[in-house]
Design a protein that fits this description.
Distance between the termini of chain A: 31 Å
Strand order of the largest sheet of chain A: 3-7-8-14-11-10-9
CATH superfamily of the largest domain in chain A: Bira Bifunctional Protein, Domain 2
Number of helices of chain A: 14
CATH architecture of the largest domain in chain A: 2-Layer Sandwich
Number of domains of chain A: 3
Helix content of chain A: 25-40%
Oligomer: homodimer
CATH class of the largest domain in chain A: Alpha Beta
Strand content of chain A: 25-35%
Radius of gyration of chain A: 26 Å
Shape of chain A: globular
Number of strands of chain A: 26
CATH topology of the largest domain in chain A: BirA Bifunctional Protein, domain 2
Largest sheet of chain A: 7 strands, mixed
Largest interface: A-B, 66 and 66 residues
């Protein structure tokens, strides 16, 4: 809806990244607030980005042997109550349906905050023999968690996500699955969204309610805070025992399965948007950009028909170019009511990776100007406007370069903002000044974690793979350090 | 989960189509009942069919200029109450969320039974100028309607669907949109699902709550009942006025928009499954079949390795064949624990369009047997088992023929069961004996409709395009006939 743009104004990201984020989401028409607190509307451009993200992640899930399915929205209260830790963790966030069909229900129905429960009940019904294992299911669904403070994409009451659920014969196989999907999430963030993330195991206090172990990927936002962007849970036999998910082994004994679950939500999209943008607006990684190239005609009234015709011809030609396994998405901005400068700003705000400008002199000179959204660099591209012959590979190469450059920038940014701190004083500074993640030696106790959280607002994000050296002391308690952990304030 | 199959048993369709349907849905592992009444679980094979249907219908929606987006699950009660007819129609079916985050909510939230309301509220917020029109939105979502009697796919409390919502400057444009999407639905049913449907306008009593006019497509089930399989509503300015959806016209006057909405749910999948199957199970139209070809090795222990190797090679070759714009989906059933006859039944139950059988003698003779699920006809196909050279086009031609034959059969079946009745006596026989649809002259009054419904259980499905001749009398009241309408009992 073009008219809104005329009032466009976004706070520079360099001044206030948080306000910039809200401004961009609204002004670029990605999402809007709905009449229900904390529930967002996905407008077409925002939803198109989400559909691209979904296609990439879904491809990884299917390629690793999982099958899509769909389990119901509702969970009867009595079933939710069966896994004690799980219900304790989720009960405060549940929305309850109490009336339906004009009557009060005999039993309240929870709107799924996650689907381990209803899936567990079905598996217990279906599963018979070891031949039925593994079960490798995934669903794309909406879930509801009654959050207090909300922000578009980053934290909403209703959110869209995928949740994978698997059951295995052995502990080792379930642990391998947990690790495999964490790795897929890390690669999805890096290769598809150009987001460098830190991955690792979560502390006991930060793990999923009902899990034995939770692993996660954490992205770093411009204010130095962490954004948990995906989690993979090894559930042991907790849900198997609570929901009686058993099978007959080859040796004729009845056994409980070992289960996992793992999820990525639209939150990762919020993180991607916030990480890559600049003062002009979004910068979309080409792999998830709904529009790869926008062509802006530079014309006055008398040469408009010719210029528009050449722009359309160029667009047709570019749509024959294959990028990331599909046709390039090309848009000609032929709106008569706006000037080129306005259009440049419009598409920069929306993060379109490449802009092509075509004016009468370009046509005469058999060329066009191509501008890269990340660097802003302008290049000339030769075009034969009779045949539309051009160096198509240089266009897809530009997209590939932009994707790679965004990732490299993300990696450099995050690596440069991980501070291996030597004292609690230094730790506090890193956190208070929003300098990034603090990597600190920690005694591994929940008490220390809790104290640090109260004193600094930082929590453990994930535990580093490399343990502390011999005789290293915990930064906070002075006791023996058990882990090195990444600490940060978080969204 | 293979083990379940050993208990397989389906009621022959020729004996009891209704029981056959339930048996097939459960035994072919398309769906199952969940712990919540009326809410189904989509198992992977059933969901894969739904994903194929969705891809085809989504393609049509996008190709006709619409954009996907996503609006929230919840609608505050006060907003739902604004369009009087709409709320009156839907209130009895609404599920209400009354508690969230451990507290009673200030205002109950309806779970969307359809999204005109929340969409209307957002449009009123966004819409400014005539330049913003038309708005052409679509969403794929879950909705909830508290139904009494439920059946998998055909009628469930929670169901998956797409709902299109559009806003236009003029009445003519909105009416054209309503007609365009009805036509897309008719073509989707016919061309993608091989379902011949009757289309037309609904009577006043059968229209959507809040619409000016509702159009629908109606499929015929084996028991002669109608299944409403898609509807397209011209909403006039009813929602525009209730939700204040206005814009500034070119002449600077404020105007209400004209809106439409249209939806197809997983119900159409149920109708497709029921219409095409036979005593052996499902028959899937190739365009929506998750597996196009299953290869069954016919081998004893000593020749198993060779036969399996050749089956895998053949599968690899067939996966290079393009059908309906994508790679052929080919499965080799290499399970050792089952005999070929069992496997034939397994895949027949699941409706896989083509089966290929490969045994040692086929390999020697450079051939394989290919069997068509619809006709059961067996043909030999030449295969060079060294190079896997074969006539790939004959395989995709078989799929195209099967798709066309299924549609032709559906068309013939439906056309043969439309009875242009001359008396109420004949009408009653057609309905009571489940012979199909009765096409009858009707005075067009709701009173007559109501009487016929009470006396025969049949309702008007759609009104025929061709009006009754001059001086034709209503079959029921003896008054002047206003319309010719299709009557049937319905799901």
């Amino acid at each position: 809806m073009a008219k809104k743009d005329e009032k466009r104004f976004i706070t520079p990201k360099s001044e206030d990244a948080s306000q910039w984020y809200t401004d961009v989401i609204l002004q670029a028409e990605l999402a809007d607030y709905s009449p229900v607190r904390g529930c967002q509307v996905y407008r077409p451009y925002g939803f198109a980005i989400w559909e691209k993200i979904k296609a990439h992640l879904n491809g990884r899930i299917i390629a690793t042997g999982h099958e899509n399915c769909y389990y119901p929205l509702f969970i009867p209260k009595s079933l939710l109550d069966k896994e004690a830790e799980h219900v304790e963790g989720f009960a405060p966030e549940v929305a309850w349906v109490t009336h339906g069909g004009g009557k009060q229900l005999d039993e309240p129905l929870a709107i799924r905050p996650t689907s381990e429960v209803v899936i567990g009940v079905m598996w217990a019904k279906w599963l018979q023999s070891y031949r039925d294992l593994p079960i490798l299911h995934n669903q794309w669904a909406n879930v509801v968690r009654w959050e207090k403070a909300t922000r578009p994409f980053l934290r909403t009451l209703e959110f869209l996500w995928q949740e994978g659920h698997t059951a295995h014969r052995t502990e080792a196989e379930a642990r391998a699955e947990t690790a495999k999907m964490l790795e897929q999430y890390r690669r999805h963030a890096g290769e598809d969204l150009a987001l460098f993330v830190i991955d690792g195991i979560k502390s006991e206090s930060e793990k999923f309610a009902g899990a034995v172990e939770t692993y996660g990927i954490e992205a770093m936002m411009p204010d130095g805070k962490a954004l948990q962007s995906g989690t993979s849970h090894f559930l042991g036999q907790n849900f198997a025992k609570a929901y009686d998910i058993k099978y007959l082994e080859e040796d004729n004994t009845e056994q409980y399965v070992w289960t996992t679950s793992w999820g990525v939500s639209h939150r990762i999209m919020g993180g991607m948007l916030m990480a890559h943008g600049d003062d002009k607006g979004l910068i979309l990684p080409p792999k998830v950009a709904p529009v790869h190239v926008v062509i802006v005609p530079i014309a006055r009234d008398d040469d408009r028909p010719l210029v528009l015709e050449k722009c359309q011809g160029l667009a047709r030609r570019l749509r024959e170019v294959v990028y990331d396994g599909a046709a390039l998405s090309v848009k000609v901005d032929d709106r008569e009511e706006f000037r080129p400068g306005y259009k440049f700003a419009h598409w920069e705000l929306r993060g379109v990776p490449l802009r092509i400008e075509v004016g009468p002199r370009d046509i005469e000179g058999s060329t066009c100007i191509i501008v890269d959204r990340l660097s802003g660099a302008k290049h000339e591209l030769q075009v034969d406007y009779a045949t539309y012959e051009l160096d198509a590979e240089s266009v897809s190469a530009k997209l590939e370069n932009l994707q790679a450059a965004l990732y490299a920038r993300s990696r450099e940014e995050v690596m440069g903002r991980i501070h291996e701190v030597e004292s609690y004083e230094e730790f506090k500074q890193v956190i208070a000044e929003g300098r990034g993640f603090a990597l600190a030696a920690w005694d591994g106790t929940a008490e220390t974690e809790q104290r640090v959280k109260e004193e600094t607002s930082a929590t453990t994000r994930v535990i580093a793979a490399e343990p502390p050296g011999h005789n290293v002391k915990c930064l906070f308690s002075g006791g023996p350090a058990r882990y090195r952990a990444y600490f940060a304030a978080s969204y």
